[in-house]
Amino acid sequence: MPRMREATNDEAIEDAAALLARSRHVVALAGAGMSKESGIPTFRGEGGLWTTNGEPPMNQYQTFAADPKRWWQRRLEEPAGAFGQALDAAQPNAGHYALAELEQLGVLAHLISQNVDDLHRRARQRSLTEIHGNRHWMRCMMCGRRWPRLEFPVDPEDLPPHCPHEDCIGIVKSDTVMFGEMIPPTTLRRCSEEVWKTDCFMTIGTSAVVYPAAQYPADAAARGIPLIEVNPEQTALTDLATIVVRLPSGEALPRIVQAVRRRLESAGDGRERA
Ligand SMILES: [Zn+2]
Q: Whole domain around residue 35: which residue ranges?
């Protein structure tokens, strides 16, 4: 089944563009590699925060659930750590904008991101599932409604914050999925639906070790769906990939999109959305 062949990056980019241009429901999975190119430290791998500082407690969610008021007090009192500061300063890079452009061209149907940094949204990606949540959003634990953090003022005198919706009494937390917390079922359902519909799957800057996200490309490949991998390094998915572009996403994606655009234009494909 693996059909990987040795190709130069230039060839792989053209092959990827040809495949993308003729596919009808492309789904992409983006991982920490994309954020890293925007200056956000990764957790795993060489120089990663966890590699350097040790893994965080695996019962974060249980700590929150046991005493949400205390959790919120700490959150409001403690200054943002190095990771938080890097996230707040980060800007979308050329790779983020290229994915948004691929969506505008009518080629990329859906993006599943493992990143919590809001950079896809800020690059104007529309069809997006943030499988680990979004650090700049808040979420009601009961009804699942979400709000941008800046539109949801938290009163330090009235903690924990509660859902403002009149028929809900849920506690509100950061949208980021904590260790020990279940990914919201609606999120998982959306991902499964998109992966089931896909006829071309693209992985970008992900080492595909974190489940359930890692399952999606594996499932697609098991169904014979062609897989494009964009990653400067070899990963667990490389052997499954039909096409491998061994470049950082900020370099590879704009070139792939340019090649897709050229093909659509020469084919007179009117897929581009207004
Ligand atoms: Zn609610």
A: 9-53+92-132+183-266
As a whole number of angstroms, the distance between CA 76 and CA 271 comes to 47
What's the pLDDT tens digit per position in 117-143? 999 999 999 999 999 999 999 999 999
Helix 185-197 × helix 215-222 angle, to 10°: 30
Question: Does 159 or 210 have the greater pLDDT score?
Answer: 159
Give the residue from 262, 210, 257, 212 showing the smallest Cα distance to 230. 257
Structure tokens at 5: 């062949």
Q: Can you tell me the mean pLDDT for 12-18?
A: 97
The SS3 assignment for 192 reads: helix
Catalytic residue from among 96, 110, 132, 136? 132
Q: How much distance in Å is there from the Cα of 146 to the middle of ligand 1?
A: 9
Determine, yes or no, domain membership for 140. Answer: no
pLDDT at 7 exceeding the cut of 60: yes
Please report, for the domain that includes residue 190, its CATH number.
3.40.50.1220
Q: Catalytic residue at 132?
A: yes
Contact 32, 42 (CB under 8 A): yes
Q: Is the pLDDT of residue 55 over 60?
A: yes
Residues 6+ apart with CB under 8 A from 211: none
Contacts of 118 (CB under 8 A, 6+ apart): 134, 135, 136, 137
- Alpha helices (runs of H) in the chain, residue ranges in sequence order: 9-22, 32-36, 49-53, 60-66, 68-77, 82-89, 94-104, 119-122, 185-197, 215-222, 249-266
Residue 186 Cα to ligand 1 middle (Å) = 14
